[in-house]
Each structure stands twice: as C-alpha cells, then as structure tokens.
Amino acid sequence: MNSPPIRAPLEPLKGGQLVLGTVALSLAVFMNVLDSSIANVSIPAISGDLGVSPQQGTWVITSFAVANAISVPLTGWLTMRLGQVRLFVGSVLLFVLASFLCGMAPNIGMLIVARIVQGAVAGPMIPLSQALLLSSYPPAKSGMALAFWGMTTLVAPIMGPLLGGWISDNYTWPWIFYINIPVGILAAWITWSIYRPRESAIRLLPIDKVGLVLIVLWVGSLQLMLDKGKELDWFNSREILLLGVIALVAFIIFLVWELLEEHPVVDLSLFKGRNFSGGVVAISIAYGLFFGSLVVLPLWLQTTISYTATEAGKVMAPVGILAIILSPVVGRLLAKHDPRLFATGAFLIFAAVFFMRAHFTPDVDTMTLMIPTVIQGAAMAMFFIPLTSIILSGQPAEKVPSAAGLSNFVRIMCGGIGTSVISTMWENRTVMHHAQMAESTGATNPAFVEAVRGLTERGLSEQAAWGVIDRTITVQASTMAATDIFWMSAVLFLALIGLVWLTKPKKSAMTADAAGAH
Questions:
Q1: Ramachandran angles phi, psi of 238, nearest 5°
Q2: Could you say which of 1.20.1250.20, 1.10.10.10, 1.10.8.60, 1.10.540.10 is the CATH number of the domain covering 1-202?
Q3: What is the DSSP string of 151-191?
Q4: What does the alpha-carbon distance between residue 386 and residue 228 come to, in Å, rounded to a whole number?
Q5: Hey, is 13 helix, strand or coil?
C-alpha cells in the first residue's frame, strides 16, 4: 500500500466516529490486558489436560510476558516504518491468529510457542491505542480520553479471572483464547475503517539489529533458566549453567553495545536520572511481586484447598473494584500533590494486603480470602499513575516516548521473572515444609500413632490412613509455603518505600502521559 498523505495537525473525530473509534481501541486493549490474566486461573486445567505439572503450566504466563516485554522497545521503530494505523491493525490481527493457534495447541510446547507469538505481537497495541485515542479528542479532553482508556485496563483484570474460571469449568480451556477472535476482528475492522485516512508519517530509520538480538538472547535465556531450573535441579544441570552463562554474557555485551550505539533499541542513558532509575526499579519489583501473587494465589486455591476455577476467579475478581472508583480521584489529586505520597500509600496498602494473606490457613473462608483482594484495588489506583509520573518527571518531551517504552520493558519483564521466581519458591518451600513435618511421623510419635489408629477404626486400611495423613501434611505444607511468600512480599513492599523517597519528582510531572503509560 502507498503511504497516505501526511495530515498535520489532525482534526479531532466527532459524533459516531469518535464513539466507534474509542470503543474499537478500548476493545483491543481490553482483549490484550484480559489475556495477561485470563490464563491465571486456568493453569490447573491447561496443565492437567496437556499432562504437565501446574508449575510447568505457568510457562504459559511467563512466555507471554517475556515476549511482550521484548517487543515493547521496538514499537517506536516499527511505527516509523509502517505507520501507527497499519502497525496497530496488523498487531490486532496477528494477535487473533496467535489466539487461534493457542487454542489449537496439542501440547505444552506448541502452546508456549503460540503464547510467545501472541505476546510479541501484543507489544505495540497498548502504546499505539493511546496515541490513536489522544489524536481523536481535542487537547482539552485528553484527560477524558485517557480515563476511557484506563477503564478498560482496570476492568480486564476483574473479568479475566471470572471469565477464565467460568470457561474452564463449563467448556474447555482453549475457549479462553478463542473468545479473542470475534473481538479482535471487530476491533481491527472498525479501527481500519475510521483511522486509515489518519495514518502517521513513515520514515525509514535504521534499527539496532545487534542490540535486538542481544536483548532476545539474554532475556530469553534468563527466563528459560528460571522456568526450567527446578525441573533440572538448577546449577547441577549443565543446561541451566549454560543458560545462566549465556544470559550473563549477553546482558553485559548488551549494556556496552547499547551505551555506544547511535540508534539503540533502548536508551540506557535514561538510568542516569534519579527519578527514572528509582521509579523504574520500584515499579518493576512491585509489579513482579504483584503479578507473581496473581499466579500463585489461584494455583494454591485450586491445587491445595480444592476451589474450582470459577470459585478462584471470584476470589481474584474484586481487585479492580476500588481501582476503578479511585483512579479518577487519584488522577485529579496528582496534579496538586507529591506523587511520592501516593506511591507510599500504595506500597503501605500492598504490604497490609500481603500481611493479611500471610495469615491464611487451609480452612480459610471465601470472605477472608476476598477482603485483601478488594483492598488491593486501592493500592492499584495509587500505584501505576504516580510511579509513572515520577519516572517521566523532568524528562524532555523528545525523551518521553523512550522513557515510557524502557520503563514498560523492564516492568513487564520483571512481571514474567517474578512469576517464575515466586512459583519456584512456592514449590521449594512446600517440599521443605513437607519434609520437616514428615519428620514428626512414625511409630515413635504418639500423636501420629493415635491419628493412624483413629483412621483405621473408621474402616481405612493402615496404608490408606497414611495416605490421608500425607495429604493433610501436603495441604499444610503448601499453605505454609504460600504464606511465606506473602510475608516476604509484604516486607519488600515496605522496603520499596525508601526507594520512592530517593527520587525528587518535579511539580510539572507529566500526569497525562503517566495516566496512560501503564
């Protein structure tokens, strides 16, 4: 297709076109964000159907997150080469195709490959949807445009667990991916119809091919090492050692190359700024802890205390309620108050939520499970926007896109790494607690002997009685391991408050950009 004429400045859309354009862009974002959470409660169903452990099933989540992180820095270059509209519509259609391949996957390997493709093509969708939406509204209404956009990113985490759980229980897990097909096709068609005449200018810029290869190499190797470490006994395995060496060497070369390259894939010089480096580290570690808990909690509910996927979805869903209510309030207040206060509030609430979860027991009731989830929504409202405001504070206008892209890359990558690390910790500590409690069993322990006698008097064989006790120990060990992680997360959230106050955001922090950057 020939490049359309450059139209600058673009006139805002009006009437039905504005409504349809907003709906189409929001639908695409909703589909994208939904897919990062819908699989969380479906992991037991997916892993059981494909014959792998739930821990191996988490690769379905981490593969998407890592591929998504790697593709985000390429958005700027691809936009210049293809144009905003072509790239956005192409990403949506490729996302639809990848969703179809996910549903058709006959084994875990093919599903992970399809999820990698899905994550990679999803990278440009969120930043481009923001750009197209802002060009559709008058500058005076840009805040309202971002509010519409932000609602979809907050509603999707509510719908994801509910929809994923309901589909897994009532249909089959491939339908969590098939539902993207009609939504994506409709969003792509409406977007192309409305925005095709508004295509952005195309420029043939060079790309840092070496930097791109290096980023794929070190991020991919690191994620593989984390995902397969437990299965292969960590550094007792030559494969894990090799992956670790490749990740480390490629990362060092990547750092040197990007600092010297004229057109780097990521602008590492941004880390010289106190606000950028402090903000990025804080938001990335916090996101890794938050996202890891979104994976472990539904897994624990289903594999340990016998919740169905639908019930686990109901427990996870309320996380967005307070986020939706409070986000517009935080957005208005942020222009007048120090963003560090909001970020501190978010981390204090996150810490309180995880301290509450650290007291969970195997017989915990649904209301006790849901209360921290509801409260967590308040932390989400004060988390993304203020921290992104700190990250972008003081950045010159020409640096904002690079700063937003690099911070999103690090944050999304930490989400995938956090999931791998936390799920591995959960499995390791379950084994440790089980071994410690099992030491108290045997003929020398009066309580154990009495428990076996009680079970055999009910008609169980001695072997069956041992099995019942072992299952009880396993449930307790799994719960203790989960609460260990919740305690650790709470302490880390408190520690991150110190990092926030090392930054010095300027009062002119770009709250509009911040509102949409997540």
A1: -65, -35
A2: 1.20.1250.20
A3: HHHHHHHHHHHHHHHHHHHHS-TTHHHHTHHHHHHHHHHHH
A4: 36
A5: coil
- Whole-angstrom Cα distance, residue 250 to residue 210? 11
CATH number of 266-518: 1.20.1250.20
C-alpha dist (Å) from residue 434 to 298, 362, 471: 21, 14, 10
What is the C-alpha separation between 200 and 403, in angstroms, rounded? 21
What's this model's pTM, rounded to 2 decimal places?
A: 0.76
- CA distances 308 to 80, 166, 191, 304, Å, are 47, 9, 38, 11
* 320 or 508, greater pLDDT: 320
Distance in angstroms (rounded) separating the CA atoms of residues 189 and 224: 37
pLDDT of 137 strictly over 80: no
Say which residue the tokens 């093509």 belong to.
121
Listed in sequence order, the residues at least 6 apart from 492 whose beta carbon sits closer than 8 Å to its beta carbon are: 285, 289
For 405-456, what is each residue's pLDDT tens digit?
778 788 877 887 887 788 888 888 988 988 888 777 766 677 767 777 777 7
CA–CA distance, 101 with 95 (Å, rounded to integer):
10
Do 95 and 121 contact (CB within 8 A), yes or no? yes
pLDDT (0 to 100) of residue 6: 45
The SS3 call for residue 308 is: coil
Distance of alpha carbon 84 from alpha carbon 199, whole angstroms: 6
Closest CA to 382 of 318, 325, 326, 316: 326
CA dihedral 494, 478, 39, 124 (to 10 degrees): 30
Q: How far apart are CA 17 and CA 463, in angstroms?
A: 70
For residue 230, give the amino acid letter: K
Tell me what pLDDT residue 9 has.
63
Whether the CB-CB separation of 363 and 493 falls below 8 Å is answered with: no
Give the pLDDT mean for 46-68: 78
**What residues contact 308, with CB distance under 8 A and at least 6 apart?**
165, 169, 302
Dihedral of CA atoms 435, 440, 442, 445 in degrees, nearest 10, equals 180
pLDDT higher than threshold 60 for residue 126: yes
